[in-house]
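Example 3.2
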Amino acid sequence: MRTYHILKPFIFIVALLLSARALNAQVRLDRDLANQNETIQYGTYFKWGMIEPRAGNGVMTVSAYGGGYRARIVFATSSFFDNFYRLRDTIECQYNANRLLYKAAKHTSENKTLRLEDYDISYSGGMGSARFVRTVDGEISADTVVLANNGMDMIGLVMEARGIDWEHSDIGQSYSFNIFSGKSIVKTSLQLEAVEVISLGGSRYKTYRIAVHVWDKAFESGGKKADTQIWLSADKNKILLQGSMALKVGYARVYMKSIRGARYPMTSKVS
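Structure, written as tokens:
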């Protein structure tokens, strides 16, 4: 099995851990998230039995950009993983001044291969569509149109998770989305499993535990069960504090290391 196929779902959860609101066929950035300048740092780890090496670091930012807004995640493998698999990944989505999603991009340097994936998104007649272009080492390998109501990239899903009103959601309630994945659409849902207190970095936080179902063969269950769980802070920020994903080999885990520029007080911190 190639390393990329093992890491594909891991990269996905890095993005998840790090809100767009679907209105008819349109995807908009939540107004609160558009009005902040936020930076969150994450540590990522693989777990094989008793071994849990640090896989890399991720940084998520939400900021004003080009007259509108941009949400971005930058991920880099650690020096340990660089010895046999070097990955530098930048995923972002851009919104115009009306907070409407119009562009998504994923730029990956995988060992010595540079892969660029860009989506230019438009809306017409109750349907969203995106022109998708992929280049590998400067050569175009795909150029097509992807159709999907409420289609968004992984960052859009991240922002959506933070925009959902989990406080007034029932345990077991779920929300469904269409996620761009290359030339395809991946069905994904977020389901509230519990409200619970977790320990992180010497502190304790009240959180929303959310199950993520992804109908993609790269994941262990292919969507039949939730391979992934994420914990969002139970306050107005709804920051992703930690996450865990079952892989075909071991687990991937993500933990928040620091946050700067949170719009609201972290009232979820209980001690």
